[in-house]
Amino acid sequence: MYEGESILAYHSNYSDFARQCSDEERSYFVFCGVRNPLDNAASLYVKFLNDQNKAYSEERWRLEKAGDVSKRRVALYKYLKNVDSSFDAFLCKFYDFRNFPYTSNSDINARFCNDIIRFESMEDDFEKILNQLGITKKRPLPRRNPTGSKEYFLKYYENKQTRKMAVRIFGPAMEEWGYSFPDVWNAGKCDMIAQTRYSAMKKFRYLYARHFMAGAFRHAYLLRNLLE
To answer: pLDDT tens across 107-152, in order?
Structure first.
């Protein structure tokens, strides 16, 4: 519709593009998306519960078969299905893994971007970028892969234990991207230790994505199945 061409996999990072682009393509206008981490976590939780697109129950989605589902994710799906399906259990096992702070692809791609699209204002932000580039908008953005049966995301954070865990996991990223916790949470600002750990994790994620998820070590499935 906009005369684009699909060249990379879904949710690829800028480093994947830079590895194979021409000098002319390297000068292209680049933008990426960002989403409230609390909302993103709630959506992923529901996708685990629903086994959306059979991603966790069918072998064809596994890393070893050129998919993006690790054995760690399959194990979490089985745990939620057979042992404890609570949101607290999901947060603890998926995001509080090794006590690392939350990071996302936005953290490692933003430095290469000319602009950002927020999930919460995606339609308007996309139109603003089209206007910057002198491109006429041809239709509203289509909605793909919606999370079925999901409630408003803050409903998943109704008890104090969940909120405390969420502040610890998502706090630095929330501050980085200009999101805030509800006032009633009394979250406060992240301390220096939390910010330092977040900064270190962003660097680790960038190196890991560049060399393991799409680089020379992308077939190191033993490690990838433990971490992804």
So the answer is: 999 999 999 999 999 999 999 999 999 999 988 888 877 787 789 9
Spatial distance between the Cα atoms of 46 and 197, rounded to a whole number of angstroms:
28
Is residue 2 assigned to a domain?
no
Residue 215: the pLDDT is 81
Please indicate, yes or no, if residue 141 is contained in any of the structural domains: yes
- Write out pLDDT tens, residues 31-55: 999 999 999 999 999 999 999 999 9
Nearest in space to 101 (alpha carbons), one of 147, 167, 182, 31: 167
Phi, psi of 69 (to 5 degrees): -105, 120
Domain that holds residue 40: 14-227
Q: How far apart are CA 62 and CA 69, in angstroms?
A: 5
Quickly state the pLDDT bin for 98 (edges 50, 70, 90).
low
Number of domains in the chain: 1
Q: Which long-range contacts (CB under 8 A, 24 or more apart) does 86-94 make?
A: 87/42, 87/45, 87/156, 87/157, 87/162, 88/159, 88/161, 88/162, 88/165, 90/41, 90/45, 90/48, 91/41, 91/162, 91/165, 91/166, 91/169, 92/165, 94/44
Structural domain contains residue 147: yes
- Phi and psi of 8, rounded to 5°? -130, 170
Is residue 4 situated within a structural domain?
no
